[in-house]
């Protein structure tokens, strides 16, 4: 399956959900909004299960943890500081928000659920690998269902022209530039094991672990799929830590570090730690990076350098 076909499938499902949403019955709309928060955990279990089965044929699978941590940390911090430098030059104003301990504990609980879902998928995969039962499973189609549901959710999001301000659009631009610069730095450390195009591609997930793990597995290998999955899971954790530690003082930078998650998982934290004034920044940045992530991953993986 070529990268172009994968990208077309993603955007077709997103568009289908967006345009069908107004025609859905009220009970069906309520059902979509009810299952959407839990669907990512179901998808994560399936991704971990599939990757565990595939990683069973790879020598030393524990070797994927160090590069995942390195790329996650440097891309999160890189996005944060690039955005900070840009806005220090063009706009020094900052709106300070209040930090809620209750929301922080909820965030940690959600991360814990993600790790639990990952563990469940790994255990199931290990049990199947240890048995003689042969099972073929592809998470890609489950991901397409998830993207369709996201399209339905986007149809009921209120947009206005102020959300396209050039100052808002600098947030995702800083995330891209910071991630690319971090990837170049990482390449000098990981060049013995990974190509520059692979390291650059791994930096383009922006925290969307349920997408990147599947996409890398489809386009490259199970090993790189595992690294991508862990990279973006850790990137989301680092984003949450930056949001609560520094979001009150540097809101746009914290949103930039959150990547694609600023549209969903970390949006509530933006309201609390950064202030409601920055919700448009989070929504637009998350939306743009969510749309760009699969395209950039496919683009870098197709290059040879």
TrEMBL record:
One of its GO terms (cellular component) is plasma membrane. The keyword Transmembrane helix applies. InterPro entries: LysO. Keywords: Membrane, Transmembrane, Transmembrane helix. The keyword Nucleus does not apply. Pfam families: Lys_export (PF03956). GO terms for molecular function: L-lysine efflux transmembrane transporter activity. The chain crosses the membrane at residues 6-24, 31-49, 69-90, 111-128, 140-156, 168-189, 278-301. This is Lysine exporter LysO family protein. It comes from Acinetobacter dispersus.
